[in-house]
Amino acid sequence: MICLPAPAKHTCRSRALLILAALAAPGCADRNPQNSPGQSTDRSAQPFPVIEVLRGDPAQSFAQADQPRQFQFPADHGPHNEYRTEWWYFTGNVDNGKDRRFGYQLTFFRFRPTLKPRGGRSHWRAEQLYMAHLALTDIDSQQFHAVERFSRGAAGLAGARVGTLHVWLDDWSAAATSARTFPLRLRAGADGISLDLSLEQGKGVVLHGDNGLSVKHAEPGNASYYYSYTRMPTEGHISISDQTYTVRGNSWMDREWSSSALGKDQLGWDWFALQLASDYELMYYRFRRTDATRDRFSYGAVVFPDGRVDTLDFDEVELDILDTWQSPGSAVVYPAAWRLRVPKHELDLNIRPALAAQELDLSFRYWEGAVELSGAFGAAAIDGRGYVELAGYGATAAPRAR
Amino acid sequence: MATGLLLRSSRRFFLRHPWQAGLAITGIALAVAVVVAVDLVNSSARQAFAHSTETVVGKATHRIVGGPNGLDDRLYTRLRVEHGLHNSAPVIEARVTLEKNAQREVVALLGLDPFAERTFRAYAWFDNLQQAAGEGVLVPLLTQSNTVVLDGATANRLGLEPNDNAYLVTGGRRIPVRVTGILARTAAGASPGISLRPGNLLLADLATAQEVLGMPGRLNRIDVVLEDGDDDAQTRLQALLPPDAALLPTATRTRSLKQLTAAFHTNLTALSLLALLVGMFLIYNTMTFMVMQRRPLLGRLRALGATRRQLAGLIAMEALLLGLAATAAGLVFGVALAQGLLQVVNRTINEVYDLLTDANLALSHYSLLKAALLGMAGTLLATVPALLEATRVTPGQALLRSHLEASSRRLALPAALAGGVALAVGAAVIRLSGSSIGLGFLGIFIIILAMTLLIPVATVALMAAVKPFIGQGFGISGRYACQSVTASLSRTAAALAALMIAIATVIGIGLMVNNFRLSVERWLQQTLRADMYVSLPATGTTASGHALDAALAAAILALPEVQALSSVRRVHIEAAHGRTELAAYGLSEVSWAGFHFKQGDADRIWPLFQQEDTVIVSEPYAWRHQVQPGEVLELRTAQGYRPFRVLGVYQDYGSDQGVVSLSRHTYQRHWHDDHYSGFGIYTYPETDLETLRRQVQQLAPQRDLWLQDRSRILQEALAVFDNTFVVTDILRALAAIIAFIGVFSALLALQLERSREHALLRAMGFLPGQIRGLIMSETGLLGLVAGLLAMPVGCLITALLILVINRRAFGWSMELQFSTEVILHGLSLGLVAALLAGIYPAWKIARAQPAEALRRE
Questions:
Q1: What are the sequence ranges of the domains in chain B?
Q2: Per-residue pLDDT at B128
Q3: Are B206 and A122 a contacting pair at CB < 8 A?
């Protein structure tokens, strides 16, 4: 997955910009309930126009994801500080083997606001800013928790170690436990929830797009480097208000870095990471365009049980919205059930959120949550679990179920 | 009898005597105004104090503090990253000067981590933030050095716009900074009259603060929010701290701030109460007078069938209307006065209490209501005697003045007796009230009131004493004047009391300030022993970047002109029981003589002071903390709390909170700090100080040293002292003005009322000049009497202020001297007021036709 959408139609904004906006206007960005759903709202008049910060610093001066690269591991698990944005994205579905199922999300974002050399000699002087999101879906008790953190990549408060996978912000971290990188250990907690999970590598790395170069738009350089681990056997502990559960399940890790933004004609973004019970995985994302046509940079990939990958073009996936859900807090309307078909692989899936209320109503807002699947794979019935991210809703016309 | 008739008689009276109502209203209004003003200033200042705490402390429940040079910032990272102490925020706080186009403002520099701040401080960093187009604030703040955000008020004063450059002056260095954003003032209407945005606030990223203050790797403190009542969390956190750090509840800081300003508030309040007291006399005087004047009329009304109740109602209603008009005018004037006073008070707060607050006028309804009530209740209360008098007499008696005067004179002795009793009560209150400042003032008030009760007797005695001399000098007019002062005691006593209190106040406060200044000057002369002093321009911070280093000390000592060097390191140590100012002295023996011990023997103190874990404490410290020589103080050192034995108590006017002094040796052993705050240079005889000054400055080319010789320091210290008492002087002057108006109106009324008597005298053959002489000597005598009586009372007030109030408020002892200049000044004030009051009646009577005047009556 890459960019979160622009809240305004006419400005080029990327997820990274939104991160900055969120940093800059703590607690006040995007927090007001939107106008009635279905009505287009121009939100360009935000109180803190951080976007302007970057106008003087065109993306071109940052390193660009403009050609395929030779990935080196574990080095590429580490930070790529010369690019504007980067993230370490973990999602997963786990359960305690009995009565409790959980979805979790732990994400670390790195953002470099400017290329200007940092001034001064204090070791607090920041060049990189970090943001992290922790979300926990307690499916069986219908609870959703989401927390955000911000810090600077300086003074040891947040950062990512070069040459390995170790990223942290405060006492939240995702770190390699050995020279072989895996298993990874994820630790995070706040406001009565916490997780401590160990993630095995599982299947091999999946390089998206053209050997990891994932093109997002026709504009040259509007691309990212993007790889995933799609099925990582996971075990560990999850605690919710003093109750600790020993859990097992599967996680999904996305790594992506770039210096680009969403195209002007791209509004938002739906992303699906689905783990089928038959050891297949399906990844699919699509951009929502201002002109409501299908975006040809939408992309998908099917990962076979043996690790082989088949990439899917934008016209090889059919996605229909079956239902919508309106957030009682933000009044934003999100899609809440889909039918996803990949005729090429005879795949026909119904996707439903494990819990409707999985909106992260934080400094900037999006919906990301655990989903459940059922349907047909060839002649056989199939089910599975997964994660879906929906971004850029609320600023434009509400989605409509077909 | 018809009420309408009574009302008409009342209206006629005021229409015929408009000046009387006017002066009464002016007097009451002034008294109310002073009370309102002082009350408003007090509450505004208190609010500003509270807000400055809020600005700085925010929602923190605790703070982690370090030693003289703060905390290692890695502690913060460790607590946050390894121990998950999320509700914590690093803070660097320092006083710096912001300079733009040669204009300077002292501001509080807060170095913060914007990300950690989100849950802490009340002001939102980015609400209403004014910024330059195209640049943004947060990113430059975080990524670029020397970028700051300034509060709107200060930006206005300095004429700074977003993206402007300015200079930050600190520790003798001048550092260019860029203002990336300006905190806008709170939107109007949020809270009428109150600006919740603190003034003089400069925000910077922590990195910038470390850089400009020259304290890389250090923090002043870490603010923490701990769950209410979670003692476990406190214990756990405490266990994680190194020995030089301490976890303190935020409340201690707020509390010490309250202590710091308590004396300040009490003093202001006492002054306003004094003004009210004078005002009450004034009201009493006016009301009594207006009743007395109409005694014949009231008697006639009684004879015509008006009931006592009706007359009482009439007078009460007059008082009510006068009180209403005066109170309303007083409230309006008081608010304006408060505005002016606040300017002065702000300066005092900033200079003396080292707090950066921009106290804005807060129109508290409570203050206004209180003053209105005081004005109304005061007026009505002061009317009661007149009311009783007017209604008690029978119609027949009321027509006779002689009855009234006779009863007044009869009352003189009992009043004096009551005065004696009140005097004893006042003395007892002072004696028994321990260390309470408020009760101390109460005692003083009682004593002042007691003195007023002695006035009739003293007046009669004085007049009897001066009559022969006056008679010789002024002939029949003089003797007549003496006689009539005594004869009209019923009306003159209150006027005399008001005038006496006012003059006594002027004398008392004047003498107190005079003595205080004298003591400070003498102390400075004794303490300042060195020929030249070196320090950094004062910024009120103890950060190491603001200190001089050992290399400079060695370099200065190596100069051929320098005979000896003494040094001081001044730091604040925060501990569970509050903030302690430490002064670590590296003294050459020459400078020992600069300490004057109030308790303890210098010969025994100095040898022990150099070697063991011992301290000496300043007089205010000993008073505030009730410490005696031989006792042990617990001070928080780099290894935690350690005991120090108190050797002596020394005289010091430098800090009203008190100082604990110790030898540099002891200090370094316990605090591991090798910085200096200042040096005193002792030169060989015949050294040219100007040359030396240049030489020393050259030793520190990067910094602007503050180099002063003895006499300059003396001058500057006294200038600060004088500034501190500006408010006191203003209030003293106001009390004098109120008294002046009171006396003026009373005497004017007295004389005008007697125009019939004067006309009679004219008819009997007195010349206009003689009448003028009579009037002038009568008012002059009254002024003289008030002035003479005020002299001992003023001296008594001084003695009480110095021996009771100053000791209780600050623990300072000072000499008691009575400057004749100040006393004579007070005396002349009374005389001038009285003589001025005589001018108009004298002028009028000289022009009036006797027959006309007689017929009108």
A1: 1-58+286-399, 61-249, 403-531+714-857, 537-704
A2: 53
A3: yes
pLDDT of residue A46 exceeding 70 = no
3-class secondary structure, A338: strand
Query: Best mutation site among A81, A84, A124 for testing chain B: the one with the most B CBs within 10 Å?
Result: A124
Instruction: Look at the domain A15-55+73-391 and name its fold.
Output: AttH-like fold (2.40.370)
At B539 the pLDDT is 53
**Block residue for tokens 């606001």:** A113
Chain B interface includes A117 (CB < 8 A): no
Q: Are A350 and A339 in contact (CB under 8 A)?
A: yes
Nearest to B516 by CA among B803, B96, B147: B803
CB atoms within 10 A of CB B14: 16
Residues 6+ apart with CB under 8 A from B69: B215, B218, B542, B543, B544, B673, B675
For chain A, give the number of residues: 402
- Distance (Å, whole) CA A62 – CA A65: 10
Q: What percent of chain B has pLDDT over 70?
A: 81
A27 inside 8 A of chain B by CB: yes
pLDDT-derived band at A284, boundaries 50, 70, 90: very high
Place of tokens 């020393």: B696
What distance in Å separates residue B46's CA from the closest CA in chain A? 31
Q: Which of A207-216, A332-341, B295-304 has the lowest mean pLDDT?
A: B295-304
Residues from chain A that touch B134, judged by Cβ atoms under 8 A, are 52, 55-56
How much of chain A exceeds pLDDT 90, in percent?
Answer: 62
Sign of CA dihedral A209, A211, A214, A217: negative
Helices B365-392 and B308-352, packing angle to 10 deg: 150
Gap between the Cα atoms of B28 and B328, Å rounded: 10
For tokens 């470099």, what's the residue? A112
Query: Which of A355, A386, A367, A325 is CA-nearest to residue A141?
Result: A355
Model pTM score: 0.77
- The Cα of B106 is separated from the nearest Cα of chain A by a number of Å equal to 24
Contacts of A58 in chain B (CB under 8 A): none
Is A21 in CB contact (< 8 Å) with chain B? no
> Which chain B residues have a beta carbon less than 8 Å from that of A123?
207, 216-217
Contact B145 A114 (CB under 8 A): no
pLDDT class of B661 with cuts at 50, 70, 90: very high
Contacts of A151 in chain B (CB under 8 A): 115-116
> Among A211-220, B317-326, B807-816, which stretch is predicted with the lowest mean pLDDT?
B807-816
B133 touches chain A (CB under 8 A): yes
- Is pLDDT of A188 > 90? yes
Residue A2: the pLDDT is 38
B211 at interface of A, judged by CB pairs closer than 8 A: yes
Q: Per the CB < 8 Å rule, is B86 touching A190? A: yes
Distance CA B360, CA A52 (A): 36
- Using the Cα atoms of residue B386, residue B389, residue B394 and residue B396 in order, give the sign of their dihedral: negative
Q: How far does Cα A56 stand from its chain's mean position?
A: 28
Residue that the structure tokens 């002369």 belong to: B525
Three-class SS state of B345 = helix
> How buried is residue A67: exposed, middle or buried, by Cβ count under 10 Å (0-12/13-18/19+)?
exposed
- Confidence check on the interface: ipTM exceeds 0.85, yes or no: yes
Measured from the Cβ of residue B787, the count of other Cβ atoms closer than 10 Å reads 26
Answer yes or no: is pLDDT of B738 > 90: no
Chain A contacts in chain B segment 597-636 (CB below 8 A) = none
Contacts of B205 in chain A (CB under 8 A): 124, 126
Q: Tell me if A126 and B86 make a contact (CB, 8 A cut-off).
A: no
Is the model's pLDDT at B218 over the cut of 90? yes
Assess contact for B162 and B181: CB atoms under 8 A: yes
Q: How far A317 CA sits from the closest chain B CA (Å)?
A: 41
